[in-house]
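Hi R.,

As promised on Friday, here is the backbone we talked about, encoded as structure tokens. Could you run it through your design pipeline when you get a chance and send me back a sequence?
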């Protein structure tokens, strides 16, 4: 499988300003040296607790936030080198579906207007063509074509996320960043949306980066899964490897915290102590050492490299060096 996207050394630092003059007093390393590839047609899950940098990573890939450093190579082109205008054209190929379908849909616009917007941006000028495409897209996501004149509040949460998906699909994208698209939905609706997204992937040969805060959501849908902690990837491998044989102590802890006992996978229980440290003041050495049940002396001093310890299995941990 060939990569559609290669991310190399991606960083996003936010300034912390303070005092009367708003001088820079430090920075938050929201994303700190993240590298991974995404293969064409795959679903890559990206998981971690809130504040781990997964959403910022997703947005930085589309330059919805401007990366501080690194390369984002989409179909052999480093998109961080593109001008605003070139980037605008590329957005046709790279789309995002947001977590909160209510906040991301303009409440004063009809569904038709919401879905037409990206069509107009990318040159679909005739209103007849727009109307037809909107109807088609609504049907594709499982909504009634003649509900195009309704407003977002007239739909349920799950239906609103279907509208968000229809909008993302409007210009036949190749890659969709899905930023916790089911987290705000009732559990009963989550699997319907996940099934829809999987169907759409197959039907339109899409590639997804699927962001979630827990491993149970991405388990079914992902081909590979990456786990993030404090702005960095700590483990990345195939779904089966990750769930059957997690290597990083943080992944092991996340898996053992999955509330419903899962007979498919057995993992020794790991209990995490303490809170996630602040990304504005991350621990020295391994960022996980303050909570890691396996921590050794070296972990406080030296940051472990993110390296391939066996075929397709990347881990950042001194236990595997
Ligand atoms: Fe734990 Fe050390 Fe591995 Fe970090 S490097 S996860 S502290 S064992
Ligand atoms: Mg988020």
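Update: got your reply. Pasting your designed sequence below so it's all in one thread:
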């Amino acid at each position: 499988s060939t990569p559609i996207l290669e991310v190399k050394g991606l960083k996003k630092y936010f300034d912390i300003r303070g005092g009367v003059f708003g001088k820079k007093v430090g920075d938050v390393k929201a994303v700190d040296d993240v590298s991974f590839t995404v293969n064409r047609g795959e679903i890559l899950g990206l998981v971690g607790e809130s504040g781990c940098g997964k959403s910022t990573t997703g947005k930085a890939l589309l330059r919805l936030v401007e990366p501080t450093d690194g390369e984002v190579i989409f179909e052999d082109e480093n998109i961080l080198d593109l001008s605003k205008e070139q980037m605008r054209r590329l957005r046709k190929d790279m789309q995002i579906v947001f977590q909160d379908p209510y906040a991301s849909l303009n409440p004063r616009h009809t569904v038709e207007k919401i879905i037409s917007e990206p069509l107009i941006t990318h040159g679909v000028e005739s209103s007849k063509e727009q109307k037809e495409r909107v109807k088609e897209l609504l049907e594709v996501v499982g909504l009634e074509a003649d509900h195009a004149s309704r407003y977002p509040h007239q739909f349920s949460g799950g239906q609103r996320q279907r509208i968000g998906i229809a909008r993302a699909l409007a210009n036949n994208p190749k890659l969709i960043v899905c930023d916790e698209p089911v987290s705000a939905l009732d559990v009963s609706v989550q699997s319907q949306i996940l099934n829809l997204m999987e169907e759409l992937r197959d039907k339109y040969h899409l590639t997804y980066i699927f962001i979630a805060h827990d491993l149970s959501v991405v388990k079914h849908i992902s081909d590979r899964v990456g786990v993030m902690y404090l702005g960095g990837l700590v483990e990345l491998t195939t779904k089966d490897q990750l769930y059957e044989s997690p290597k990083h102590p943080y992944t092991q802890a996340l898996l053992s915290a999955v509330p419903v006992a899962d007979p498919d996978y057995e993992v020794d229980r790991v209990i995490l102590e303490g809170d996630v440290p602040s990304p504005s003041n991350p621990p020295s050495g391994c960022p996980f050492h303050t909570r890691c049940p396996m921590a050794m002396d070296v972990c406080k001093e030296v940051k472990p490299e993110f390296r391939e310890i066996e075929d397709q299995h990347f881990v950042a941990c001194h236990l595997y060096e």
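One thing I noticed while checking it: Residues 248-249, 286, 288-289, 292, 294-296, 299, 304, 317-319 surround iron/sulfur cluster (ligand 1) (CB under 6 Å).

Thanks again,
M.
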